[in-house]
Write a structure and sequence with these properties.
single chain, 199 residues, alpha/beta, two-stranded antiparallel ribbon, globular
Length: 199
């Protein structure tokens, strides 16, 4: 199961550094995802991107379901390798470039969208292999989910720009995955589900 992190806001701390935290709406979104997980009635293992917005979301899920959260850097957002202020200002532009040419990094020190897909897929395969019989929940980012969705549905990643789908905060994607050698057999159960977010 892939979960997009809940709504967040950025603000400056006392020393001027940019920080992220869930908004009140974001906290309610994370609590709604937790209720969805509680309804599964199966063992869970929760993984998270290390970025604050994802980790805070995952911790809400973990607290509500009494599960630990494992941080996996391979679930992180597109690595732009820019100062936080510059990355925030240029994020939309760089993501557009990453989607337009999935093989080429949008900036000299950044990674390509293909690299994002490969590392996130590697992380998920490892999590599924290590936790057979449990539902693996990965809290990550919209762009990472887009790349994985293309993979699991057999859509060439190069079509991600034309396929561009809005993935709301707190949306859930669910597949039943069976590992097979170097690949996997994945059956889609829910795509971009937000019914749990309804008031």
């Amino acid at each position: 199961m892939l979960v997009r992190h809940a709504e967040f806001a950025r603000r400056r701390d006392a020393e001027g550094r940019l920080e992220e935290a869930l908004t009140e709406t974001g906290r309610r979104q994370a609590e709604a995802v937790a209720r969805r997980l509680e309804g599964l009635g199966t063992p869970l293992v929760i993984y998270s991107s290390p970025q604050a917005r994802a980790l805070e979301t995952a911790r809400v899920l973990g607290d509500a379901t009494a599960h630990s959260v494992f941080v996996d850097a391979e679930l992180a957002e597109l690595r732009l390798r820019l100062p936080a202020d510059e990355a925030e200002v240029r994020s939309a532009e760089l993501w557009a470039r990453a989607r337009a040419d999935v093989e080429t990094p949008p900036e000299a020190e950044a990674e390509s969208l293909r690299a994002v897909q490969r590392r996130a897929l590697h992380a998920l395969r490892g999590a599924v292999a290590a936790n057979r019989g449990a539902v693996v929940v990965a809290v990550t980012h919209g762009g990472v989910i887009e790349a994985l969705w293309c993979h699991f549905e057999g859509v060439p990643l190069a079509r991600v720009a034309e396929r561009r789908t809005e993935i709301p905060h707190g949306a859930v994607f669910e597949w039943r995955v069976r590992l097979a050698g170097e690949g996997e057999d994945a059956r889609l159960l829910a795509a971009n589900a937000t019914d749990h977010l309804a008031p």
